[in-house]
User: What shape does this take?
Amino acid sequence: MTTPATPRPPRVKPPKAMSAEDERYIDEYVTRSVPEKHQLATTRALKGQTMKAASVKMMCLQCSGFQRNEVTECRVITCALHNHRPYQK
Ligand code: SF4
Assistant: This one.
């Protein structure tokens, strides 16, 4: 008889303490400026609920106007995130 697999822990951190004003600002920014497809992930990253790799991914997507191919083709070698950016060939 095998024991059931232990469920994986969620990849989302618990919410970080943040002022209501900051939360409103983030929510407004996300609603107005982030494509719907990326809104949840961006909100989580901005509220400190994601792991570092997901935060880097969201930073690069924000930086490149949420264009994945722009992140792939990024030539800003002076950016501290360049070697860690997602979607590299
Ligand atoms: S690595 Fe490129 S896409 Fe990512 S944050 Fe830096 S400049 Fe922007």
Q: What stands out?
A: Residues 20-33 form the longest helix (14 residues). The CA atoms of residues 17 and 78 lie 33 Å apart.
